[in-house]
Amino acid sequence: MIRPFRRADLEAIRHLTVVCFEGVSIDRNMEERLGVIGDRDWRWRKARAVEEDAADAPGRHVFVAEVEGQVAGYISLRLDHETRIGWIPNLAVAPARQGRGLGRRLIRHALEFMTRQGMAGARIETLEQNPVGSHLYPDAGFVEVARQIHYAMRLPPEPEG
């Protein structure tokens, strides 16, 4: 069953986010190369991003896949009614539920919702190191439109003074 997000789902989707983005997160890549930056690790930052997706804000939506009463996956959406483009910033499926079409069903649900909301286009991103996204998204009908390289650096501490 795919249903709208409820506040009670927040901890479950935070947990899924950290588990599912372990090897495929820009923030994790930064931390791997540069160490922890600031007082928060990549897991905290990624979980915070999904909290922002779940915030009760215009154009933001999260749908949850529930299996046997448990959150088994989720997809988050951001709709821009001016451009009529919807964006899927996060999609996660519990490892024990992967490979059974649940991610595909979440994408289909999101695209149908976007269409009903008047969107004319949809976008989703993945890292090259994410073999699931690199296969699933084209298979769901998305076409590659660009590649981007992310750079990061550690800044020196502020001089005391």
Describe the structure.
This protein has helices at 10-20, 26-34, 42-54, 102-116, 131-139; strands at 2-4, 60-67, 70-80, 85-93, 121-124. With 161 residues, it is an alpha+beta fold. It has a single domain, classed as Gcn5-related N-acetyltransferase (GNAT) (Aminopeptidase, 3-Layer(aba) Sandwich). Helix 2 (26-34) packs antiparallel against helix 3. The chain is globular, with a radius of gyration of 17 Å.
Q: Element order, helices and strands?
A: EHHHEEEHEH
Contiguous helical run count: 5
What is the CATH superfamily classification? Gcn5-related N-acetyltransferase (GNAT)
Largest sheet at a glance?
5 strands, mixed
Assess the beta-strand content as a share of residues: 15-25%
Structural class: alpha+beta
CATH class: Alpha Beta
What's the architecture, going by CATH?
3-Layer(aba) Sandwich
Task: Detail the poorly predicted runs.
Answer: none
* Average pLDDT metric: 93
Percentage of helical residues? 25-40%
Strand order of the largest sheet: 1-2-3-4-5
**Rg:** 17 Å
Structurally, how many domains make up the residues? Answer: 1
Distance between the termini: 58 Å
CATH topology: Aminopeptidase
* Topology, number of strands: 5
Q: What characteristic shape results from the CA principal axes?
A: globular
List the helices and strands and how they pair.
Elements: E1 2-4, H1 10-20, H2 26-34, H3 42-54, E2 60-67, E3 70-80, E4 85-93, H4 102-116, E5 121-124, H5 131-139
Parallel strand pairs: 4-5
Antiparallel strand pairs: 1-2, 2-3, 3-4
Jot down its keywords.
161 residues; alpha+beta; Aminopeptidase; 5 helices; globular
